[in-house]
Description:
Residues 123-358 form the ER-bound oxygenase mpaB/mpaB'/Rubber oxygenase catalytic domain. By secondary structure, the chain is mostly helical.
Amino acid sequence: MTGTPSQAPSCYRIGALDSGPHARIRRQIKRLTGFDLLPDDSVVARYGELLSEGDPVAERFVAATYHGPMGAAAARELLDSALHNGIDTIDNAPPEMRALFDEFEAIPEWVDPDLVEQGAACWRRWGYALGSVGNAGTMDTYTEGSLAVPLSLAGGYAGASALNRYLETSRWWLEVCKPGAILTPGSPARDISLKVRVMHVSVRARVARHDEWDSARWGLPISQAEMMLTLLGGSVGPGLGLYSIGYLTSPREIEALLHFNRYLGHLVGVRVDDIYPRTTADGIRLLYLFDATRAHDSGPLGAELVESFVPAFAPQPAMSSRARARARYHLTVQAGYTQLFMLPWNRRRYELPSPWPGVVLLLLRAPLIAVGEVARRLSPAIDDRLQKGSVRRWQRWHLWQSGRRAEEFDASAALRR
């Protein structure tokens, strides 16, 4: 399941780094600013290896329980019991389960609780914008077969279920950014994080065996490299991108976001002690490395994923007139985010709702957001109010959009084909 660490998959186009438009852009930026857009050769090589590496500790647990003689239903009950009551209350717990909990519950020496909290506070300030910019950036990556095939097979972000999986992810975001939540044993934030980790591993195992997955070409589904990119999508990416709509996140805060996401990565099984960036500059370099080595090989699967998401916010026939207006507003705003935060040459590949009304809305409110950003630096009380107000609106949207359905984070769901 962990692949061959010494060999990058064939889709990893390292030769693209030395020629073509990305190489020209790199040379021009370096000449003008002295900043090299690419990491050093050792990081480039390790990133390629991480495309074929997974999460061995959690994989052994899933193989012994969910995919073993115990079966998925009993394994899920066992995991729920251990999370609610503690692993020590489980008689004859499988050794693979104890190993997983030992790793999950250990707080790494590098964790700085103050930095974790500062990063979580940024997420609370961004609120709904975090999910919106994150998903626009994620849709931009669906040009890649290695990302599109697992998501298409699992089905969570495709077709009619696209919004449901986004709501699950939003629930996780809401929980982990609560003050102190991810460092509090037994918190919903930690419980959901472990369930997300197990779900990823279960999907990885099923996709890796599927006829549509080409391991020689793509490495491992939901690989370490790709999971690390999602952490950058919660830190450096939005930290820089949201400047355009008024969120004035400082360089110091972006580095706190990197630390916060590093610990989130630890909880969900990302190997964060290797090439994970500690600075904004290194985060930019890894994001650029991904973009420079794209294969653009997702074909119709990528189009299905992208074209399913924004329309999922559209009003439904059974809605009241007020609910339809509310849904239309969110559809408009989400379309606007895709225009601002997807690369234009990637966005043009897809049929999406008109983004311009949403862009206008986002830009019109940007000055007001910027005023709040300045004010929060002058007054902790204003900062506290902004954070609470942002989270409250985010929660209110989530409850309305989900219809108060409980999220499942189901590791036992079958692939859709």
